[in-house]
């Protein structure tokens, strides 16, 4: 029977629901007047005089406008909070007072006397009938699980005004049903906030099982990064999806707020402290200058471009070999209309094309992000990695020097430190090429700055392990790791772009800047945390059934157990930015780079991979910075 009633109510248009509710209230208030007289005179059929009929009809005429004004017909009964009883009491009190005024005027005209107890009975009975009906409908609609069949039960972590605002925004918006709020403050436990019960998060395992909760949304924008990380860690292994909302203090539109719910990003769990970018450094290097980015369609290059256009340079030159990637980033940036954006299709190994792009547009600063960077692929295609990463860098740096570009910035990698793979070795060569070019500019007294910026893994970049793990989790696993004990540095792609540009503003020529990456992350822990954040359990010896397995595949050729950012910690100097360190460039070693490049070029031209590898690593062995004794 209840299921039938629920189906009828849910299928009604909103207009008819309100009309029926108004009709019920009219009947309930007239009934309340009759019952008040019946109670006063202790008879079931009090005498119906003209005055009593008039007062009975006046009751809904007076009350309905008040009910409308106080929002009794705007509320969705399924989600009617317990605190709505106060609104109903307020509405009935106002309606009763106005009704008493009509009674008083009637008595003044000599049309009869109303017993003093009748208004009190009317208030009590009217409140019971009007409020009781609403809460009865709520019970019918929420009978059973407390939600519709297509709704998913969720908790909101946080018991603030923002949390209540979010819960309110979710009503009727999507298929989430808010079971309650979670808060660590014991003073809040068991209380109702905005109509939602506040629970102790320590009881989450039991609550999840009791209510069948599938998702927890974090509304914790005011918490510090460390505290937020602790909360995420505490609930990430409970088999529920964890999502979050941004800082909502500036958001007004509830529907917009509901649309901001997103998945927790892994960098939030890593808990890196965030330092806002320095606008002085960004403006100094970018404003009113023509900027060129090689590899503009790649993950790092495209993020650099998105940052650069915000500072309204004179023009932005997108240099990219991949036609589709160039098309996509060009379309995106053109739509902003912030500055002229010029796409250039070409390879960094094609000197004439690089020179044309630089000369034609009079480039002031060049960010060299173009590179082959996927370690296993470059290891399997060593000659191509050498040609692109080393000869391409040499070509771009040579043209930049000859065309008197003011600032040249190489995007390097932590894998360039004591490299054990071809990709890392090519990046170290690229750093040495740039430093030798800086030394040449210094000797000639030129005001040209050549520098490199070195950092670790970027979350979400092309070839990064994080997108791979996400894809594997979405496919039901297993998540593959080569060695769970490997440790890597990670930062967000947005932070990397901001720090690269700020580092370039600090360059004095010949610098290698080191971006502070925080603590290295164990890859096995990263994989398990991502599985838990997706709402799954980790299948292991303790949990052999269900969940997603982390499968160890074995280390690949050239992989290191630990990555390093420094050759020598004592050689790293602080800069004015707390996240940027500078390697001491006061004594740049002069290596026989030209001869080594000629030998490497000859080996590559003859496709002699063994000889190319030998030259690649033997030359790095001549680098005094590569001394293994320097830890």
Automatic annotation (TrEMBL):
<feature type="transmembrane region" description="Helical">
    <location>
        <begin position="21"/>
        <end position="41"/>
    </location>
</feature>
<protein>
    <submittedName>
        <fullName>Polysaccharide biosynthesis protein</fullName>
    </submittedName>
</protein>
<feature type="transmembrane region" description="Helical">
    <location>
        <begin position="53"/>
        <end position="72"/>
    </location>
</feature>
<keyword id="KW-0812">Transmembrane</keyword>
<dbReference type="InterPro" id="IPR003869">
    <property type="entry name" value="Polysac_CapD-like"/>
</dbReference>
<dbReference type="InterPro" id="IPR051203">
    <property type="entry name" value="Polysaccharide_Synthase-Rel"/>
</dbReference>
<dbReference type="InterPro" id="IPR029063">
    <property type="entry name" value="SAM-dependent_MTases_sf"/>
</dbReference>
<feature type="domain" description="Polysaccharide biosynthesis protein CapD-like">
    <location>
        <begin position="291"/>
        <end position="583"/>
    </location>
</feature>
<dbReference type="Pfam" id="PF02719">
    <property type="entry name" value="Polysacc_synt_2"/>
</dbReference>
<feature type="transmembrane region" description="Helical">
    <location>
        <begin position="84"/>
        <end position="106"/>
    </location>
</feature>
<keyword id="KW-0472">Membrane</keyword>
<dbReference type="InterPro" id="IPR036291">
    <property type="entry name" value="NAD(P)-bd_dom_sf"/>
</dbReference>
<feature type="transmembrane region" description="Helical">
    <location>
        <begin position="118"/>
        <end position="141"/>
    </location>
</feature>
<comment type="similarity">
    <text>Belongs to the polysaccharide synthase family.</text>
</comment>
<keyword id="KW-1133">Transmembrane helix</keyword>
């Amino acid at each position: 029977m209840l299921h039938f009633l629920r189906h009828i109510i849910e299928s009604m248009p909103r207009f008819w629901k309100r009309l029926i509710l108004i009709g019920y209230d009219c009947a309930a208030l007239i009934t309340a007047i009759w019952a008040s007289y019946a109670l006063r005179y202790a008879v079931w059929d009090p005498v119906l005089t003209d005055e009593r009929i008039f007062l009975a009809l006046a009751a809904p005429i007076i009350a309905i406008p008040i009910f409308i004004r106080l929002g009794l017909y705007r509320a969705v009964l399924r989600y009617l909070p317990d605190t709505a009883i106060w609104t109903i009491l307020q509405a009935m009190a106002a309606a009763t007072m106005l009704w008493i005024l009509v009674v008083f005027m009637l008595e003044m005209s000599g049309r009869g006397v109303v017993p003093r107890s009748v208004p009190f009975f009317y208030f009590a009975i009217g409140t019971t009938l009007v409020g009781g009906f609403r809460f009865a409908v709520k019970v019918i609609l929420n009978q059973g699980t407390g939600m519709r069949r297509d709704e998913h039960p969720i908790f909101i972590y946080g018991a603030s005004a923002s949390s209540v605002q979010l819960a309110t925004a979710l009503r009727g918006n999507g298929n989430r049903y808010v079971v309650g709020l979670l808060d660590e403050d014991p003073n809040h436990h068991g209380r109702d906030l905005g109509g939602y019960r506040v629970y102790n998060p320590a009881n989450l395992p039991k609550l999840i099982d009791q209510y069948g909760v599938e998702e927890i949304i974090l509304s914790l924008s005011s918490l510090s990064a460390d505290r937020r990380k602790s909360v995420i860690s505490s609930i990430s292994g409970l088999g529920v999806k964890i999502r979050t909302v941004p800082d909502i203090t500036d958001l007004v539109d509830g529907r917009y707020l509901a649309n901001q719910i997103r998945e927790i990003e892994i960098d939030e769990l890593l808990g890196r402290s965030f330092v806002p970018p320095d606008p002085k450094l960004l403006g100094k290097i970018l404003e009113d200058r023509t900027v060129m980015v090689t590899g503009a369609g790649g993950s790092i290059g495209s993020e650099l471009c998105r940052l650069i256009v915000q500072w309204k340079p004179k023009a932005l030159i997108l240099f990219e070999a991949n036609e589709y990637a160039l098309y996509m980033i060009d379309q995106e940036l053109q739509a902003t209309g912030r500055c002229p954006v010029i796409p250039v299709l070409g390879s960094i190994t094609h000197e004439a094309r690089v020179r044309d792009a630089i000369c034609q547009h009079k480039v002031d600063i060049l960010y060299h992000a173009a590179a082959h960077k996927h370690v296993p692929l470059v290891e399997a295609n060593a000659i191509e990695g050498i040609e692109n990463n080393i000869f391409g860098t040499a070509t771009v740096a040579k043209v930049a020097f000859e065309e008197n570009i003011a600032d040249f910035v190489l995007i390097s990698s932590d894998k360039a430190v004591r490299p054990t793979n071809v990709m890392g070795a090519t990046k170290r060569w690229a750093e040495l090429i740039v430093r030798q070019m800086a030394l040449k500019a210094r000797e000639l007294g030129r005001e040209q700055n050549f520098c490199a910026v070195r950092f670790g893994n970027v979350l979400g970049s092309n070839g990064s392990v994080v997108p791979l793990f996400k894809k594997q989790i979405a496919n039901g696993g297993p998540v593959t790791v080569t060695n769970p004990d490997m440790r890597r540095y990670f930062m967000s792609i947005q932070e990397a772009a901001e720090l690269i540009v700020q580092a370039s503003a600090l360059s004095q020529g010949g610098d290698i800047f080191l971006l502070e990456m925080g603590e290295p992350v164990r890859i096995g822990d990263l994989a398990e945390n991502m599985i838990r954040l997706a709402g799954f359990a980790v299948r292991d010896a303790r949990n052999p059934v269900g969940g997603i397995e982390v499968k160890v595949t074995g280390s690949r050729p050239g992989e290191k157990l630990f990555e390093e950012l420094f050759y020598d910690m004592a050689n790293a100097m602080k800069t004015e930015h707390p996240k940027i360190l500078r390697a001491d460039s006061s004594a740049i070693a002069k290596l026989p780079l030209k001869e080594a490049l000629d030998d490497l070029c000859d080996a590559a031209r003859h496709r002699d991979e063994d000889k190319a590898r030998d030259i690649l690593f033997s030359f790095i062995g001549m680098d005094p910075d590569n001394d293994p004794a320097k830890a």
